[in-house]
Amino acid sequence: MIKFVLMVNQQGQTRLSKYYEPVELSKRVALEAVAVRCCLSRGKHQCSFVEYKDFKLVYRQYAALYVVVGVTDSENELSIYELIQNFVEVLDKYFSRVSELDIMFNLESVHIILDEMIQNGHIVETNKSRILAPLIAIDKMADG
Amino acid sequence: MYEILDESLRRAEMNHNITYAILYECVKCIYTIHPKSDLLEKAAKCIGNFVLSPKINLKYLGLKALTYVVQQDPKLALQHQMTIIECLDHPDLIIKRETLELLFRITNDQNVTVIIEKMLDFLRISEDDHTTIDLVGKVAELAEKYAPDNEWFIDTMNTVFSLGGDLLQPDIPNSFLKLLSEGFDSVEEDKKLRLFAVNSYISLLQGDSSKLPQRFLQVICWVLGEYSHLREDLEPDVTVRLLAKLLDMKSSSSETKCWVLMAMTKLCPGGAALALVHNVSETYSSSLDTMLRQRAQELQILSQDSELQAKVLPRSASMEPVEVDSSLSFLDGFVSEALAAGAAPYKPPHQRQEELSRSKALNLEPYGLSLPISMSSCSITDRQSPTLLSISSGLSGDSTDVSHKGSSTVLKLDGVKRLWGRDGYLAQKEPTDEAPRIEAASPVRSANQLGDNNASNSQTPTPTPTPECDQEKQQLASSLFVGLASQSSVCLMGKSDPTFQRFRRKTKASGSSEQITNPLVLPSDGSDNLLYKNLLDSPDLDVSPPEQTPGLAAPNGSCDAEEESTDTDVKEIETPPIRDERVTAQASPHDDPDGSKDPSLTWHLPAELSALSHSNLTPLFSKQNLDVSACHVQKEDSVVLVVFISNCSDSFLQQIRLQVDSEELEVSCVSDCPSEELQSHSVAVCQYFLTVKRPSVDFDLFAAVSWQPPAGSPLTTQFSYRLSLTTFIRALRLSTEEYGAMWLAFSHDTKQNLTLIHDGQDPLAATLDVLKRKLQLHVVEVIGVEAIVACCLQQDQPCLMHCRMHAGMLAVWLRSPVPDLPDCLLYCCQRALQEL
């Protein structure tokens, strides 16, 4: 299962974090810091799957933002890798050319999208249009 | 399923990451299910592609997949061995690790050395704890399984221990030691193995041993202790010294030290390095760590007794099971000695538990089971009829058997006669008939005593009743309610305080004329008298110096006579003697204008009232030829205050106005005084109905009279008048059934223990009598040692009382719908009984 999803920038600032198993707040900060350090220190030609403690981190870099997903051993790392790609593409579609600022200022929308995709640590939806449908409906109601 | 997998494998030719992921899953699946050869081949081919791919993620995945593959078919790995080798040296640690993982699975006798070497290399550079633990475990496993020879094995294990440090899982050294001790089948092999171990450890210890991890040291100690004798050329002396060196190292933990001491103990026989041993054991026998102490003691004793040592620590039979006498029969002598000396015998745990639960300290029994005792005691607080209560409480008082039959949550009603039903008393005439005799202690009588004692006694309006109380609840109740009663009188007292002082002085001068005219005295205390002086608030007191009347018996006697005559029939007979007596009382040495007025004033009582008994006429004040006095008359259902304003001057007075009010009483004017003018030497009579708003022990009436003398300005004077609760109490005639019904309906109650009047054969009757007389209570019934009494405050405010003789006291329980009435009435009873 997926343990957590993080979006961290190169300075180590967490832009988004979602945990699918209870982690104490104090420990979260430490965890995020370590995870980011792991990923930042890796080069381009290195594997995207990092073994960290007793689980794995799958990360992907998009410009200045790293998306890090912590998974247990039972997961197919490559599929998680692709999940990250899917997630970013959905964001791209919604925000049209998403940037870090978009995520910062529309955090709730990002969370909604993430919730549509992953629930309870498992992938539930990967179809872009289906993921975005409720969000678009909400937006329509807000506007109209 | 095979078709699907086949299909998926075929289709996945596209160049996309996700397809690879799918392929991986397929491969994983194929190798997990029942094997099918062509699928296996196809999968292997697929994997090969992965591993060979330049994309590092795919490589990783491929390697991971291979681990599944080789479990089934190691040969397939052979095809890609070159790649795998390359991966071993890959710069990316993750890949390396994964490869090692793969290699772990393909280890066999031939490649074990190489693989383990690679693993150890990796361990050396690894910084991550998890990795270390993981790999160390793997290496140990492999070494154990595939060790080519002893030396290598020992070497490897040594490396493992030193690299693994203290992160080792405890089972690794344990299994190692076990291996050593169990050995192989051939003794020779064993010996060689152990010898080698010993050798290597000696050399290690001779070198720099400070960097060795603790676990390793412990292992070394053990091995040396057990097996150093195998090395013939090795003097135990040397070993001991080496071990002692370990003890001195600061980095040794106390656990390690324990192991060291143990090893030394094993090495002792033969007098090896006795002095050193002795020193060491001395040092450590006073250590704070109990384990160390124990080991040191063992060392000391066993080093001196080699025979014993041989028995305890047999040299070569360490793996044989030791026979243990589990009944510890060798201690029997010791035990019997101790028992003879008076020690307590052994209690097995379950017995201890029982005793613990039985002891009073903590009752761990759930409440439901131990109910009966508590039930009967708390039934007192239930709204039960008093007779039922008394019977059940009698039961509980008498026997401790109330708690019999253990666990019932229902009241034990066997033997209890059913007397009271929902509707009231059930007409089963059983021993509930006794003449009700309640003694109302007349507050006048109490006044007697108070009068006698003047201001000295009972300043404290709280006659704390009972020194002894059998039931704690009653005690608490009494202490609480006594405080309450005192409260009311204290504050009443407080009101009069400011004027107190002034009149104190007066009293000395003006003696006791006020004392004479104690009507229904404030049942509070002797300062009543002083209070009456308050009424005379004008400094120029016209009252002639009072003198001690021949005791206060006279007016009291008159009062008595009054009180006795609550029955209207007797009243008329009484009044003349009262008057006479009063006259006599006042025909004492002073010529009191009041005295002379008195009879005339009473003549002024309106006709209907004159028929009734009335209290003493209180002169309220006298000022400038105006005398005001008052009395109160008790009618059947109300009290009338009659105020006489008499003009003793020669001129007429105008504009006479009188206003009376009170906090706790409702004053309604019956007939007002004439307001135009009062002729000289005439008396104006004003009547007021008084009804109780709020019960209290004493009621204060405040009044103001204003008048205008012919030549002068209007004058106003204020005075106060005090009435006690008993004025308003009337007997309430009820039948027992009605009583029962009413009892259950009322909610405010009070309980107290009162003093019994112990004269004559029947203390209960005597007490009830006093109460009846003094407080006008009606005794409904007397049942054995109990009596039920009723009274009412005015028309609609009944108060019921239940008395029980118990242990020399009268336990009294009052109930009423009116909130403060039980307390006040109880207080009056208390006073009445005390003042006898």
From TrEMBL, chain A:
It is found in: Endomembrane system. Keywords: Membrane, Protein transport, Transport. Component of the adaptor protein complex 4 (AP-4). Adaptor protein complexes are vesicle coat components involved both in vesicle formation and cargo selection. They control the vesicular transport of proteins in different trafficking pathways. AP-4 forms a non clathrin-associated coat on vesicles departing the trans-Golgi network (TGN) and may be involved in the targeting of proteins from the trans-Golgi network (TGN) to the endosomal-lysosomal system. Its main location: membrane. One of its GO terms (biological process) is intracellular protein transport. This is AP complex subunit sigma. It is a peripheral membrane protein. SUPFAM superfamilies: SNARE-like (SSF64356). GO terms for cellular component: cytoplasm; endomembrane system. It holds the Pfam family Clat_adaptor_s. Residues 1-141 form the AP complex mu/sigma subunit domain. CDD domains: AP4_sigma (cd14832). Belongs to the adaptor complexes small subunit family. The keyword Nucleus does not apply. It comes from Xiphophorus maculatus. The keyword RNA-binding does not apply. Adaptor protein complex 4 (AP-4) is a heterotetramer composed of two large adaptins (epsilon-type subunit AP4E1 and beta-type subunit AP4B1), a medium adaptin (mu-type subunit AP4M1) and a small adaptin (sigma-type AP4S1). InterPro entries: AP_complex_ssu, AP_mu_sigma_su, Longin-like_dom_sf.
From TrEMBL, chain B:
Residues 568-597 have a biased composition (Basic and acidic residues). Belongs to the adaptor complexes large subunit family. Its main location: membrane. Pfam families: Adaptin_N, AP4E_app_platf. It is found in: Endomembrane system. It is a peripheral membrane protein. It comes from Xiphophorus maculatus (Southern platyfish). This is Adaptor related protein complex 4 subunit epsilon 1. GO terms for biological process: intracellular protein transport; vesicle-mediated transport. GO terms for cellular component: endomembrane system; membrane coat. Residues 445-459, 509-518 have a biased composition (Polar residues). InterPro entries: Adaptor_Complx_Large_Subunit (IPR050840), AP4E1_C (IPR028269), ARM-like (IPR011989), ARM-type_fold (IPR016024), Clathrin/coatomer_adapt-like_N (IPR002553). Residues 443-475, 504-602 are annotated as: Disordered. Residues 730-834 form the AP-4 complex subunit epsilon-1 C-terminal domain. Keywords: Membrane, Protein transport, Transport.
